[in-house]
């Protein structure tokens, strides 16, 4: 398993979670938008080829879910990658605005 660090960059309207893997000069990101009080949309998850297979993208989504439970906020899963993982993890329904498999 790769040594992955996650950071959150949050602005008034948009933000992102950033994943870096030790020894690799690249970063993956999960971009989100604030949609209202206690509500964000997970818009896009991307990882460059250098990070493929490291688990960085999944670590980003795991961080988003953990943050949503801790803060708390709810997530509109717009990103296809987030929706695909949600379909495999229906226990995330407590932080999602849709049921697993529903399109936004």
From TrEMBL:
Gene3D superfamilies: 3.40.630.30. GO terms for molecular function: transferase activity. InterPro entries: Acyl_CoA_acyltransferase (IPR016181), Gcn5-rel_NAT (IPR045057), GNAT_YJDJ (IPR031165). Residues 9-97 form the N-acetyltransferase domain. PROSITE patterns: GNAT_YJDJ (PS51729). Keywords: Transferase. This is GNAT family N-acetyltransferase. It comes from Sandarakinorhabdus cyanobacteriorum.
């Amino acid at each position: 398993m790769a040594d992955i660090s996650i950071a959150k960059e949050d602005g008034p309207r948009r933000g992102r979670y950033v994943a870096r893997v030790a020894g690799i000069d690249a970063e993956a990101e999960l971009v989100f938008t604030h949609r209202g009080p206690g509500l964000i949309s997970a818009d896009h998850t991307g990882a460059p080829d250098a990070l493929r297979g490291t688990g960085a993208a999944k670590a980003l989504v795991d961080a988003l879910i953990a943050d949503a439970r801790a803060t708390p906020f709810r997530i509109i899963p717009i990103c296809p990658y987030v929706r695909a993982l949600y379909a495999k993890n229906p226990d995330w329904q407590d932080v999602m605005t849709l049921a697993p498999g529903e399109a936004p």
